Amino acid sequence: MTTFILHTIDSAPAKSKPLLEKSKKMFGMIPNLHAILAEAPSILEAYFNLHDLFVASSFDAEELTVVWQTINVEHNCHYCVPAHTGIAHSMKVNPELTEALRNQAPMPTAKLKALQEMTLILVRNRGNASAQEQQDFFDAGYQQQQLLEIILGLSMKIISNYTNHITQTPLDKPFEKFSWHK
């Protein structure tokens, strides 16, 4: 198996350097996922752009976490589940919600359950959702905008989850306490 490079600002391709500097400023370190993505500057840039756009979506911190962690758990991502557990804590998301997502336990509200269900439908059915499934999502209080924003979050998570699968990204020290296995 090929070992992927954990780039530093010094070792990264020129186009990745400013993105790794941004990462270090945001997190106080360069997360290993970013260090690996730096090998291909365009994917690192895409990941940052999708992240920024998703965080600026209409979802609140709990809803962002539901979309991220639902996808991470469904994709069995050894890196992103712990990382997003730490991120959820920093976003002041209720730890009970985070644990429910990690353990595939019931959601605390019907609205969050509908968001989780629609996210799973889109992941499992490769973007297909029946008219009734969409209507159930809308009946829970969501709109067309949020349905499309799930796809935005999924786009971001495909980059990270798939990268972590093929590279076996090592878990960062700060996230080790949130280690997870399905």
Shape: globular
- State the assembly state of the protein chains: single chain
Residues in helix, %: 55-70%
Q: Tally of extended strands?
A: 0
Number of helical elements:
9
Approximately how much beta-strand content do the residues carry?
A: under 5%
Distance between the termini: 23 Å
CATH class of the domain at 59-178: Mainly Alpha
> How big is the Rg?
16 Å
CATH topology of the domain at 59-178: AhpD-like
Secondary structure class reads mainly alpha
Enumerate the spans where pLDDT stays under 50 for 5 or more consecutive residues: none
* SSE pattern: HHHHHHHHH
Largest sheet: none
What would CATH call the homologous superfamily of the domain at 59-178? AhpD-like
CATH architecture designation of the domain at 59-178: Up-down Bundle
Instruction: Report mean pLDDT, rounded to a whole number.
Output: 97
Q: What are the main properties of this structure?
A:
182 residues; mainly alpha; AhpD-like; 9 helices; 62% helix; globular
Helix and strand arrangement:
Layout lengths: L16 H11 L4 H6 L3 H15 L5 H14 L5 H11 L4 H8 L7 H15 L6 H9 L4 H24 L15
Helix pairs in contact: 3-9, 4-5, 4-6, 4-7, 4-9, 5-6, 7-8, 7-9
Task: Walk me through the structure.
The chain has 182 residues and is an all-alpha fold. It has a domain at 59-178: AhpD-like (Up-down Bundle), CATH 1.20.1290. The protein has 9 helices and no strands. The chain starts with 16 loop residues before the first helix and ends in a 15-residue tail after the last helix.
